[in-house]
Amino acid sequence: MPGEVSRLDTGSRDALLLEGFTGGMLIVIMLPAIMTLGSEKIRIKAAKAGEKVSFLLPSTGEERRWWSLVCLAAGKL
Asked: Taking a C-beta distance cutoff of 8 angstroms, is the pair 66, 58 a contact?
């Protein structure tokens, strides 16, 4: 609708709110990865947590190819 598009014009309150929300979410998502880079303790914990679900992840080249195909197909549905 034409009236709704103007709500997201540069500098509008809604646009600023959306930008702030998006920036905040990016920080929340990226913070654990950044913290992992600087902390050996966190890396060890992450590795232990990953071992518990490692059976779900592909480990051979053939499994990785099939995994990629499944991911692409799931994205197309």
From this structure: yes
